[in-house]
């Protein structure tokens, strides 16, 4: 079984790297973090113009009809640059939910607009502290109107459309589509530990809602959607981990102490070896996850968990050691995008 990406997919990777080096450099990312804007709108529009938001949407619905392997390539490069856009919320979650569970009418109505960036989607699940479970959800829909609140909702302050997980008959859950510009919706931006993407507290007070999928199967739909998104988020984390490793290596090779590069010191060699091992293991698991995602294989839940856990650990390890290898805390803000390991 071949887990390598094809020549065309690697060409897409090179093109994405070149584009993001120019339009999403660390300096540009920090500029967004320093500002009050929720995301880089110019970068988002350029990404839309490249067709990345349409990657896996079928051509009949205005998309490119490519495979999930191409989307995994793009996810890794977006993670490498930490591009401050609502790409993951809109593409990995909202678009995927409609693709998987929407009716033909819903697909026709929303997918072309998501593909061309006319609207941004988000996914609203959490309701504050505590683990999400069907019996603990309080958001509900009565007579087609939604009541309740969700927080935090990633990109909920900038999205136009939300996929909302709600309470249904005690032990069940349902998914609904909600227009965030409609009546009965209130959004308040909130701060989180992750400044690279915006979050919101979204309140529904009689907001019109349309069922997505089976009314009694919302929880199963949610879990399946999370498995698929987990692989893509893991690729973002591997991209970030690799960027942190590359930065640490470059600095260690050019920084001299006691007359020689600090990369020659055994302690730093061990650190970078550990970073390399963590990133390589995570990449291997992500490749397995990419295959399972693209093939919709029965192994997807396990493959997604392996990819997500190892990628999270790798990003944390590489970001942490990147700061240690740079020594001086004065460089913290310079490297901050790769310290937070946000995704």
Describe this structure in words.
Residues 217-331 form the Acyl-CoA dehydrogenase/oxidase C-terminal domain. One of its GO terms (molecular function) is acyl-CoA dehydrogenase activity. By secondary structure, the protein is an alpha+beta fold. 51% of the residues lie in helices and 17% in strands. It has ten helices and nine strands. It has helices at 7-23, 26-34, 41-49, 68-81, 87-101, 104-115, 218-254, 266-295, 300-326, 332-335; strands at residues 121-124, 140-142, 145-154, 161-168, 172-179, 185-190, 199-212, 256-257, 260-261. Strands 1, 2, 3, 4, 5, 6 and 7 form a seven-stranded mixed β-sheet that branches. The protein has a two-stranded antiparallel ribbon with strand order 8-9. Strand 4 (161-168) and strand 5 form a beta hairpin. Helix 5 packs antiparallel against helix 6 (104-115) and helix 5 runs antiparallel to helix 7 (218-254). The chain is globular and about 75 Å long. The two termini are 29 Å apart. The mean pLDDT is 92.
How would the blueprint of this fold be written?
Layout: H1 7-23, H2 26-34, H3 41-49, H4 68-81, H5 87-101, H6 104-115, E1 121-124, E2 140-142, E3 145-154, E4 161-168, E5 172-179, E6 185-190, E7 199-212, H7 218-254, E8 256-257, E9 260-261, H8 266-295, H9 300-326, H10 332-335
Parallel strand pairs: 1-4
Antiparallel strand pairs: 2-3, 3-7, 4-5, 5-7, 6-7, 8-9
Helix pairs in contact: 1-4, 4-7, 5-6, 5-7, 7-8, 7-9, 8-9
Approximately how much beta-strand content do the residues carry?
A: 15-25%
Look at the structure and give the CATH class of the largest domain. Answer: Mainly Alpha
The H-and-E topology, N to C, reads as HHHHHHEEEEEEEHEEHHH
User: Which consecutive residue ranges, at least 5 long each, have pLDDT under 50?
Assistant: none
Count structural domains.
3
Determine the CATH superfamily of the largest domain.
Butyryl-CoA Dehydrogenase, subunit A, domain 3
Give average pLDDT, whole number.
92
What would you call the shape?
globular
Number of DSSP E strands: 9
Largest sheet: 7 strands, mixed
* Rg measurement, Å: 21 Å
Q: Under the CATH scheme, which architecture of the largest domain would be assigned? A: Up-down Bundle
Which structural class do the helices and strands define? alpha+beta
**Total of DSSP H or I helical runs spanning 4+ residues:** 10
Named CATH topology of the largest domain: Butyryl-CoA Dehydrogenase, subunit A, domain 3
Pfam family, one: Acyl-CoA_dh_1
Domain Acyl-CoA dehydrogenase/oxidase N-terminal: 6-118
InterPro entries: Acyl-CoA_Oxase/DH_mid-dom_sf, AcylCo_DH-like_C, AcylCo_DH/oxidase_C, AcylCoA_DH/ox_N, AcylCoA_DH/ox_N_sf, AcylCoA_DH/oxidase_NM_dom_sf
Cofactor: FAD
